[in-house]
UniProtKB/TrEMBL annotation:
Pfam family, one: Hydrolase
Family, similarity comment: Belongs to the HAD-like hydrolase superfamily. CbbY/CbbZ/Gph/YieH family.
Site feature: Important for catalytic activity and assists the phosphoryl transfer reaction to Asp8 by balancing charge and orienting the reacting groups: 113, 144
Catalytic activity reported: beta-D-glucose 1-phosphate = beta-D-glucose 6-phosphate
Residue positions binding Mg(2+): 8, 10, 168-169
Residues at the active site: 8 (nucleophile), 10 (proton donor/acceptor)
Cited CDD domains: HAD_BPGM
Gene Ontology MF terms in the entry: beta-phosphoglucomutase activity; magnesium ion binding
Record-listed E.C. numbers: 5.4.2.6
Designated name of the protein: Beta-phosphoglucomutase
Length: 219
């Protein structure tokens, strides 16, 4: 049977989560705020604007609208400088092969990301054409854990939500998938992603028979 396979981008398809972290950390330091790795987990999957709001709240800091916007521009410029260094080597282990296997078996594939940089990053990595549908931060108004991004992806693939499998590295993203009634698969640390239906350290650790089972699984 067919499933909709929906991939988050940062931290699932490509190793850019570390770039976001570095750029947010610099921004926070420039405001005299220090935030922890634990807090950073809560920024994963969260839009640019919402992320800065959270950092300011944690740091008990208020800035005017103009500074807010300038800080976001600067954060993105620094992030994009790091993105410039990306090559195919930065595609996370096992992802490329898994995508190719899905295509071979004609499974519908979508990207569901909060990032406004998703399309250029996929193009830079040469994997843009592997996706049948792309929904990113330029397409949605409600941020994860709202299910909008994944529901839109399903709609574009013409598949019901209950037949969707979502791959996520973020707490907010796992919650968004669960809120959409989709199977949620966490990539990363079990202790952060305990709300996911299943967690693997990477795609390399996902057993072949589990991949086959996925095709028949519903929530
Ligand atoms: C993803 C990442 C977040 C990032 C957000 C917005 O969800 O996990 O760390 O802040 O996208 O990305 P953007 O590239 O638009 O700043
Ligand atoms: Mg992510």
């Amino acid at each position: 049977s067919k499933k909709a396979f929906i991939f988050d981008l940062d931290g699932v398809v490509v190793d850019t989560a570390k770039f976001h972290f570095v750029a947010w950390q610099r921004l926070a330091v420039s405001l005299g705020i220090n935030f922890t790795e634990e807090e950073n987990e809560q920024l994963k999957g969260v839009s640019r604007v919402r992320s800065l709001e959270k950092i300011l709240k944690w740091g008990n800091k208020e800035i005017d609208q103009k500074t807010f916007e300038e800080k976001l521009i600067q954060k993105n410029e620094e992030y994009l400088e790091m993105v410039e260094t990306l090559t195919q080597e930065d595609i996370l282990p096992g992802v490329h092969d898994f995508l190719l296997r899905l295509r071979e078996s004609e499974q519908p594939i979508a990207l569901g990301s909060a990032s406004k940089n998703a399309r250029p990053i996929l193009k830079k990595l040469g994997i843009y054409d592997l996706f049948d549908a792309i929904v990113d931060g330029t397409d949605v108004s409600k941020a994860k854990p709202d299910p909008e991004v994944f529901l839109n992806a399903c709609q574009l693939l013409n598949m019901p939500a209950k037949n969707a499998v979502v791959f996520e590295d973020s707490i907010a993203g796992v919650q968004a998938a669960n809120n959409a009634g989709m199977i949620s698969i966490g990539l990363g640390d079990q202790k952060n992603l305990s709300e996911a239906d299943e967690v693997f350290e990477s795609f390399l650790e996902m057993p072949t028979d589990y991949q086959h089972q996925l095709l028949n699984k519903t929530k």
